[in-house]
């Protein structure tokens, strides 16, 4: 039986190669890409292996699981990592997420902005965190055909971005999206291009909002071609989720 660290190292190598090839094809510098290893469903021990293998960004999508897992990490491992929350948020859970996450990528409505700002403010006051919470706005790229993967409709993004930028304890960093289900490669490419265009419009008002989080295990090459800065890869690194 292959030991888990070796398996993760091999998977990580494959993903880095895919990113390098996609960057070469798109004429982009791999240094422009941040790889977020999405560790949902996998134990803290895997996060420790990944940190040892050089991973510095991890993603989680359920508050309860994420909070417990982050708390389980040895302090010296936690310090190395930037923890991204990428899942659907309920406003009553948002305050808790602000205690352990460095980044929340899935902000999609005004109520969440308020809850996160309040939670981050409380965590800062108590010394549970030391920096503002970094935020991306999740955009629904489904054009109505595929609601339910979360995200604000594009028309609502400017006002939401203004609300994040105005919040005392939050920092607006950009946009995030999950490709709508059931699209072929051209459809996914068009969706990621809509996200890139929306990002460009947003940066006219908010130059600091430079992140474009798009691309997962199945479509990271397409995301690299269409301007992603952050890739969220679960299965490709950790293996299939049960
Ligand atoms: C699980 C998840 C991912 C990773 O998906 P894979 O297909 O396993 O790479 C990316 N983004 C979000 C929001 C997720 O919930």
From TrEMBL:
SUPFAM superfamilies associated with the record: PLP-binding barrel (SSF51419)
Pfam families according to UniProt: Ala_racemase_N
Q: Which residues carry this modification: N6-(pyridoxal phosphate)lysine?
A: 40
Keywords in alphabetical order, please. Answer: Pyridoxal phosphate
Gene3D superfamilies in alphabetical order:
Alanine racemase
InterPro entries associated with the record: Ala_racemase_N, PLP-binding_barrel, PyrdxlP_homeostasis
State the PANTHER family in the record. PROLINE SYNTHETASE CO-TRANSCRIBED BACTERIAL HOMOLOG PROTEIN (PTHR10146), PYRIDOXAL PHOSPHATE HOMEOSTASIS PROTEIN (PTHR10146:SF14)
UniProt protein name: Pyridoxal phosphate homeostasis protein
User: Whose protein is this, by species?
Assistant: Ornithinimicrobium kibberense
């Amino acid at each position: 039986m292959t030991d888990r660290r070796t398996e993760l190292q091999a998977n990580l190598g494959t993903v880095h190669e895919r990113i390098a090839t996609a960057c070469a094809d798109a004429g982009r510098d791999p240094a422009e890409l941040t790889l977020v290893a999405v560790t949902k469903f996998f134990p803290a021990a895997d996060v420790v292996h990944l940190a040892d293998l050089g991973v510095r960004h991890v993603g989680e999508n359920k508050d309860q699981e994420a909070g417990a897992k982050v708390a389980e990490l040895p302090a010296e491992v936690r310090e190395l990592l930037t923890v991204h929350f990428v899942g659907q948020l309920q406003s009553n859970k948002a305050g808790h997420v602000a205690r352990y996450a460095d980044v929340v990528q899935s902000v999609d409505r005004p109520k969440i902005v308020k809850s996160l700002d309040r939670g981050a403010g409380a965590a800062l006051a108590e010394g549970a965190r030391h920096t503002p919470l970094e935020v991306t706005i999740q955009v629904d790229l489904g054009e109505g055909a595929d609601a339910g993967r979360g995200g604000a409709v594009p028309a609502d993004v400017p006002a939401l971005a203004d609300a994040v930028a105005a919040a005392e304890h939050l920092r607006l960093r950009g946009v995030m999206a999950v490709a709508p289900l059931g699209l072929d490669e051209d459809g996914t490419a068009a969706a990621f291009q809509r996200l890139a265009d929306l990002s460009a419009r947003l940066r006219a008002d908010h130059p600091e909002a430079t992140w474009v989080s798009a691309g997962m295990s199945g479509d990271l090459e397409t995301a690299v071609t269409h301007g992603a800065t952050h890739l969220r890869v679960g299965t490709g690194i950790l293996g299939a989720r049960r």
